[in-house]
Amino acid sequence: MLNLPHLRLFRAVALDGTLTGAARRLNLSQSALSSQVRVLEAALGHDLFERRGRGLVLTEAGRIALDHAEAIFRTADDLSATLRETGRGRRALRIGALATLSRNFQMQFLRPLIGRPDVEVVLRSGMQAELLRGLEGLALDVVLTNHAPARDAASLWLVHRLADQPVGLIGLPRLVGSGRSPDELLRSEPLVLPVPETALRADFDALMARSGIVPLIAAEADDMAMLRLLARDGAGLAVIPPIVVRDELQAGTLIEAAQLGGISETFYAVTLQRRFPNPLLAEVLTGQDAPGS
Q1: pTM score, two decimals?
Q2: What are phi and psi of 2, to 5 degrees?
């Protein structure tokens, strides 16, 4: 009969690569750990490790067993995390957001939950790799990003496309002026742009190449909040989605001179395939505006 303790010990050895190191971390004797692994191998009918030098390497059966063990422990952790919330007056939704993502977009995503007495919203920001690790470890329920993570046949990510935001040429009224065409503005005014590593910048550079325009770059930033501040301070015309500066546009502090055809920024919510998903996720995902809004 298989049991979780045997699988946990097996996984510890597989991740460490040695009986000695795994036994030390588990506070077990090496002989006791080796004996437990042999019990599991006998139950499965296959050797799970082969010795190479001073270390242990998974056999093909061992790799299959480790994949299943990881899935079992993810399910157990998922169950524990879900049931810990049962009976509480307030449910928590743990959201990770790319540090450079528009704050206005984040607030738009959260709007269906804001003000609800039965919901606690926990927000974390960081780099995408760090956030996805938190999602995989069940420390987060969803990750907001404008970079869809790569997926393959073994991927556990679910990538929800939330919105395609048009990108505009936005700046102070004195920079925009009146009666000037987008091409004239792009040729003559300093521009505030996302950094070259972003998809938005790649699309903009391609548009400039097709148009034969050599832009005058006043500033570059990888953070939407910084692009917003640069536009507000008159550093140049910013190439950004209008949602980033929604309040300034409504107040008339900034003006959208034009929308740049063929360029948009896509926002995603990334979740994990879970047997017990957070029920708040369904509410917030279905509560989003239609793409392009």
Answers
A1: 0.63
A2: -80, 150
